[in-house]
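REVIEWER CHECKLIST
Item 1: Sequence provided? yes
Item 2: Single chain? yes
Item 3: Sequence as submitted:
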Amino acid sequence: MNILIPIDGSAGSKAAAKVGLKIAKSHFAKIILLHAISATGQKRKKWMEEGAKKLLSVYEDAMVQAGIDAENITTIIEEGDPAEQIVDTAKLRGMDRIVIGTHGKTGLKKLTGSVTEKVLRHSRVLVLVVPPKYEME
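Item 4: Structure as written out by the authors:
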């Protein structure tokens, strides 16, 4: 099994990473941690890349500490619309599942379209959405 876990540094992505980790451990799965840099009108800057590397490193280290073999974890940094990058990476890398968090937006913020909602609409891969208040037992 191959699991894609998008990481943006939010509480939602942290919860999704915990769920993805649990699934990976029970299925001896490989994990891809993906961070998409959405530069919105500006070119990808060195500090954006460094921040993304640091963020992914924290998650990778935590997963290794939790018992995932480092060889089974890949980190990827892509540039562009996060939803598009998630869907494209899942397709191109032959992922079996996307485990993604949600911010739990409502009202006007929800109407503008969340990354998670866009992934759900466009993915051909099974998507597991972890709600913002989910607590693992």
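Item 5: Key structural point noted by reviewer: The mean pLDDT is 89.
Item 6: Recommendation: ____
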